[in-house]
Amino acid sequence: MMQLVETFLVDDYDITFCSAAMETEHSMDLESLGVTKRNLTLNSDSFDVLVGELNPDIVLFDRFLTEEQFGWRVVENAPKALRILDTEDLHSLRQVRERLVKEGKEFTLNSWLQDEKTLRELASIYRCDFSLIISSYEMELLQKTVGVPSHLLLHLPFMVSALPQKPDWPKFSERQDFMFIGGGRHAPNLDAIEQLSHTIWPMIRQHLPDARLHIYGAYLPQHIWELHQPQKGFLVHGRVTDLEGTLQQARVCLAPLRFGAGIKGKLLQAMYTGTPSVTTPLGAEGMFGNLPWNGTITGGTTDFVKKAVHLYTNQEAWLLAQKAGINLVNTLYAKAPLRTRLLKTIKDWSRHLEDYRNQNVIGRMLQHQSLASTKFMGKWIEAKNKKS
Q: 205 in a domain, yes or no?
């Protein structure tokens, strides 16, 4: 989201950031960047007044649940505004995968297609003018499996500054230990930490008895803190203030992810700090195209441990992985061409908005049908709140 905000600021947009979420001490100081902030109330016509006053050229929805809540109000009060959905990841895909892992079942496309949340998310994609898709895998899934027209989707992964070919990073010999990073409000991260604690890390320690594993992440729940065992080299730190500096001290990043969606910020951060990684096929999904990975991609626990030990102890393999990470960042995630891609798409849609919307017959039908039901539910809740 901050990368999108910065992109619009660079192109001289006036930005109003609207949210119904409570701020915390760690919230970004958007106003210092020149962004106006407005607090929202759910199921309230105060949003109608706000949108009417702002009269926006573009409305960007952060995930489909936000579009469900506010999309119909934007249609009614700012019908000429370009509506963009930032999916972040396909939430339905992540949640179906999580459910099946917990049930001990294999993931299938049919299981995803039959899920109610999938239908809601797809409806939101069709209702918007176009959607930002962060993963190349999810682009292919939406186009080939579902048949979403390509012009309704824009592949836009994370956008970062390009790296020099020889960054000033700590050397192999100057780094030590393994690391994992991931917020505690994200179920795939908690599952991965538990996998590391109960299975993977004890096996790695058999080969590397002096190595340690550092767990970083905000909002970690109590049961994760209870995994902290310094005598076994398993260290739970929680939130880290200097993320880049901390990651540069580690030699290898471990990410044994069993479910999830989108692309993984932790693995891009590892590349960006010169830290090779060992992850699963799902962890690297949609992140590397046909380029070499920044380390190793492997599925089974035994092989995961073997590859982690090899990458940690073999300087030649480690340097090759680090070099691959630089190439991945500069080829797929450099912000300059990605910003150009986004802004060009916005200008094209803005010039042909009516024609493009007329071509999206499914989206128009959904606006007429499913959005009406969302609207009247919102109106009912709004009226109920006023009475109480």
A: yes
